[in-house]
Amino acid sequence: MTQKEFAQKICVSTSFQTQLELGQKNILDRHIRLIVSAYGVDELWLRTGEGEMFEKGIAQNYKIAETIEIFKQLSPFFQDYILDQLHKLLEFEKK
After folding, report:
1. Full-prediction pTM beyond 0.85?
2. CA 44, 50, 51, 55: dihedral to nearest 10 degrees?
3. Number of neighbours of residue 67 by Cβ within 10 angstroms
4. 62, burial (CB in 10 Å: exposed 0-12, middle 13-18, buried 19+)
5. CA 56, CA 42: separation in Å to the nearest integer?
6. Spatial separation of the C-alpha atoms in residues 21 and 29, rounded to whole Å
7. DSSP classification of residue 55
8. How far does Cα 3 stand from its chain's mean position?
């Protein structure tokens, strides 16, 4: 993910995000809520560093959401290829 994509998900400009990273701006509660919602990050961990980074089960949901976003950007040819490979992996795992 690019910085631009991350900034868009939390509804800020890339320049504002850069200022956050450099400690020139403070993150607002609404941005924290957007990060928690968009990425499944545990709010306590995000604010304090305590506990687990992701809520239980959320990490898996994030992987699914990221996979879907990437899949939607592929051409139909590559979407078909990926689906075929996923079916093969599933059959291989069952064995």
Report:
1. no
2. 30
3. 12
4. middle
5. 9
6. 16
7. -
8. 12
Tokens 């994509």 sit on residue: 5
Distance CA 39, CA 66 (A): 9
SS3 of residue 41 by DSSP? strand
DSSP state of 82: H
| Structural tokens at position 18 | 């850069």
Domain residue spans in the chain? 3-48, 59-94
What does the alpha-carbon distance between residue 44 and residue 46 come to, in Å, rounded to a whole number? Answer: 5
Q: Token pair of 95, please?
A: 């064995």
Q: Which residues of 68-85 are buried (b: 16+ CB within 10 A; e: fewer)?
A: eeeeeeeeeeeeeeeeee
Neighbouring C-beta atoms of residue 37, cutoff 10 Å: 12
Question: For 71-84, how does the pLDDT look when each residue is reduced to its tens digit (9 = 90+)?
Answer: 888 899 999 999 99
Percent of the chain with pLDDT over 70: 92
